[in-house]
Amino acid sequence: MADRLTPAQRSWNMSRIRGKNTKPELLVRRLLHAKGYRYRLHGKAGKVRLPGNPDLVFAGRHKVIFVNGCFWHFHDCRVGQHAPKANAAFWEAKRARTRDRDAQQRIQLEAAGWEVLTVWECELKDGSALEAQLVEFLGAQETPARS
How far apart are alpha carbons 109 and 122 in whole angstroms? Predict the structure, then answer.
């Protein structure tokens, strides 16, 4: 049987999990930047903070992108449906609150006229499909005028 973590060890591990600048988010940012798209980070649309602090904000297009981890946001893929055995009731409730909060924030953004795309961590495995999804969502990239 695997060694069990003490509550202090678990707390330390959990405190190291980031919410911003995650590897999946950085991958999407690099891909979009290389394609010529420019964006603001973490819910900033000028001086206004958007509900849910979207990872990428395209203010001129009125579009936002969330890059979500499958486990944390309860995606319907294999990783998202994994149920921890230790402290199961706590994790079920925590992840359900996250899913509900995500849905509410999406409703608020759409009501304010924003288009929303959620990119799931599991979708990053197929780079060409991800790129096609992002370009379709954002539309053609305008090329800057050169003199």
Answer: 24
